[in-house]
Amino acid sequence: MSGLADVRTDNDSPKRLAVLEAAGRLFVTHGYGAVSMDVIAREAGVSKATLYAHFASKDRLFATIITEACHQGVAAATQLAAAEAGTDIRAVLTGLGGRVLRFLLAPRTLAIHRVVIAEVARFPELGAVFYENGPGRSRGQFTAWLQRQTAIGRLAAADPDLAADQFLGMLRGNLYHRALLGIGPPATQDEIDSAAVATVDTFLRAYSAA
Amino acid sequence: MSGLADVRTDNDSPKRLAVLEAAGRLFVTHGYGAVSMDVIAREAGVSKATLYAHFASKDRLFATIITEACHQGVAAATQLAAAEAGTDIRAVLTGLGGRVLRFLLAPRTLAIHRVVIAEVARFPELGAVFYENGPGRSRGQFTAWLQRQTAIGRLAAADPDLAADQFLGMLRGNLYHRALLGIGPPATQDEIDSAAVATVDTFLRAYSAA
DNA sequence: GTCTATAGAAGGATAGAC
DNA sequence: GTCTATCCTTCTATAGAC
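Structure tokens for the assembled complex are given below, as produced in the milestone run.
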């Protein structure tokens, strides 16, 4: 794959957008290998020639899809972080945890994670690009937040990176693990909230300032 | 895919084993879609006709590979659990954590996890079969162990399932997450040991009997 | 930019000889 | 069981007209 990080998105012709929409839906649902350019063209309502007029190759099209998905993930993460303010650490963490977990367990998020993990072997740089633009950035913001809370004496996270990893690891826990494997019915809101509460509970026992 | 859970392995002709070896290596390295039956036959040193004499289809061959990989995972997990005994909870947990994490981060383990996650969309039953035979069984054994330790007063894990998920979630943390995405160099022994120590540290602050 | 039609290659699976 | 040779489908990508 050439130029994964250098994908233009300034062109917004209707046909191009239709291709992006169809390809995005198909790729994240069925994976890279199982989706043909014929099917994408048909679903988008354009001819293959038009498709290739906008995207030089299947690789490039895939790169564009994943890059845009990353940016959406960043936007979501930023929203999450910005929405959290308040003095009750437990309430803030629980709210944040619930929102993050809901995002991680959303069918679209899971599908994107699956397809990225799937194609790491084929496109080695894909994993890093995805991580830096998505989960890594969220983690960075969370780490900074933990550090600020520690600085003002509301938490005792001497190693904010480690604390962030442990919090997020516990949060993902079994729900995310099983969801990634497509096991069982989707998690209910109660399960998600309960997992967030339990995570915060354990986390605060280790990192509470008091 | 038909009969994922019902794969015979009683035939051990040399050619058949050569096919299994080559296909296993190729599938976990490059994924299902990127490996052709031609390449498998060539790598195994047999003709395609011979390949199809032993495996009815590419699907069936893939199912056999993954099923056998699951059984290896179960064997590894059982070994891990059996090896742990002792009275110093912290030492036992740290040893166990380090071994589990080393197993999870092994290139072959990561490759299998990647290919299973990748093909969940194509083979819906694959995720459940893999989980039940691999990670789920390990988790069950760990849960039972936590429960016993709680019963004899060495731990205070009122909800052993939850405690197991939190322990394993923290243990995977960022190392497994990044490794699955193929980011950066493989984790060093020091990083693994350090992650295990940190996980046990946080875990025991929440679930210590004292 | 957009289409129809097709080239050229590769894939899964099989026929028939031994 | 094993091989060589091949069929048929599907795939990516492009040529050429409008």
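The radius of gyration of chain B is 20 Å. Chain B touches chain A through 48 residues (CB under 8 Å). Further analysis is deferred to the final report.
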